[in-house]
Known about the structure:
This protein has ten helices and no strands. The chain has helices at about 10-25, 35-45, 45-55, 55-75, 85-100, 105-115, 120-140, 150-170, 175-195, 200-215. It starts with 10 loop residues before the first helix and ends with a helix.
Amino acid sequence: xxxxxxxxxxxxxRRAQLIELGVEMLATRxxxxxxxxxxxxxxxxxxGLLFHYFASKQDFHLAVARAAAxxxxxxxxxxxxxxxxxxxxHALTNFVDYVEENPDSYKSLVRGAAxxxxxxRAIFDETRATLAQRVVDxxxxxxxxxxPRATLAVHGWVAFAEECVIxxxxxxxxxxDELLTMLTKALPSVVLAATDEEVGTLVQLLTSQQAxxxx
Length: 215
């Protein structure tokens, strides 16, 4: 790969450029496979200069992971101009799209959280908490009582959805629409199991969601 011509940038702009290059590379490789030499070459700087902006390779990896997580959260922000169930389906569709387009980036975030690295775990936990809170807000606006059990159920559903999408990316055992329908239907089932709502409410919500998924 030909090194880029070196361009003078402010320290803030150079740091942002290096992080952006790292995030772009994550689309085709895991975080552990990111080469600081290749990043530096693309930026037109020396490997040593890269460490002027980051204390260590791990510090660089954490900065890239934070940026990748922020990008995913931006891509999956629910469109609150839509009806609530449409907004939920829209966000879920965007989540599947993001993971499908950036499988290694997302796997790096998940596997980094499982690696025992406290800083990576914090990034993952904050990202999942934000995703879960968005769903909790929608569930509350749908009229469910947000009891501790219901909130716990939503967090569990988020983890379930993450695992299903990762396995789907790897194996494609069902088609994309089937995956989205399954995940969308699972949410009210899980929440209702943690509340005292009537079964009729579940049937009504599932019917609405089926219409959305089929439309």
